[in-house]
Amino acid sequence: MSVQDENKLTKIKNSLESRVVTLPDGTSMPRIGQGTWYMGENPQMREREIKALQLGIELGMKLIDTAEMYGDGDSERLVGEAIKGRRDDVFLVSKVYPHHAGLDMIAKACENSLKRLGTDLLDLYLLHWRGRVSLAETIEGMEKLRKEGKIVRWGVSNFDSDDMKELWNTTNGKNCMINQVLYHLGSRGIEYDLLPWQREHHMPIMAYSPLAQGGSLRRQLLTDPTILEIAEKYAVQPLQIALAWTIRSNNCLAIPKAVQEEHVLANAEAAIIELTKEDLNRLDEVFPQPTRKMPLDIL
Ligand SMILES: NC(=O)c1ccc[n+]([C@@H]2O[C@H](COP(=O)([O-])OP(=O)(O)OC[C@H]3O[C@@H](n4cnc5c(N)ncnc54)[C@H](OP(=O)(O)O)[C@@H]3O)[C@@H](O)[C@H]2O)c1
């Protein structure tokens, strides 16, 4: 590795260490973590996927997000293999299906996830989306898991502002640590009321699909002249600008998923990019903030 490369790696690691979000319990987390949807499903990709996650951990993207749903447990198994021997370097997140989030099922679902992940503790357990089980029951289940030492903390995913308000008014609902929602430059609906509500209640957002799935959800992220110009200014790729935009403030961390080594490096490198007010204003012109309530974007 050349001196230049080493300097860059040090810069990436330092940026990830210093640009953090703080959870309501005081835990600090680098603003870029790693997603794992579709990982573990293709045996031929297995080695590459494991290496990608390990490289990400080495660079400092220590939060790994998975779910019992992904590949029917295969993603958790793959993550388990990737973190073997490095559990302490990782902040492990998994999600429970809504139909497993009642008191009769949640303990078993969590136990199964722990087994597949090869660990005895989740750092964060999320309700994947809202289903038929009452919030009160899911919260009770989460709190029980916390007391039993199976999870350190819990949160939710795909909750809109009304769901968050209801959660807040449910017993122990204020113990929720984060809400994982779709958020990228081409999907800014949450900025109307959800993001302000969460900021007011000191609860960060975890942005999923922060690259709009490599631009496939919003091709404009790869081709828009303003993004291209800003990317040129920083000598980076357009999607790195999109990722840097997502983590521009201290109440949002993003979990891009990447298997290709150059994507992992590019995503970690995005932590170095601090967009200026002028850059942000220019991006606002092309990708405007919402001016009215929008339905929550969900994948
Ligand atoms: N809670 C929920 O309901 C929910 C829903 C969706 C996603 N999620 C979580 O959020 C994670 C991220 O979202 P996502 O996987 O939907 O989409 P994403 O992270 O926005 O995009 C992933 C795609 O972008 C490509 N990519 C990654 N880095 C890149 C780069 N620097 N330049 C160009 N292309 C790049 C990847 O390619 P390669 O893999 O080939 O490198 C992959 O095809 C998921 O993996 C999952 O953990 C949660």
Automatic annotation (TrEMBL):
Gene3D superfamilies on file: NADP-dependent oxidoreductase domain
Annotated active site: 70
Domain NADP-dependent oxidoreductase: 31-286
Annotated site residues (Lowers pKa of active site Tyr) in this chain: 95
Binding, substrate: 128
Organism domain of life: Bacteria
InterPro entries: AKR, NAD(P)_OxRdtase_dom_sf, NADP_OxRdtase_dom
PANTHER family: ALDEHYDE REDUCTASE, OXIDOREDUCTASE, ALDO/KETO REDUCTASE FAMILY PROTEIN
Annotated protein name in UniProt: NADP-dependent oxidoreductase domain-containing protein
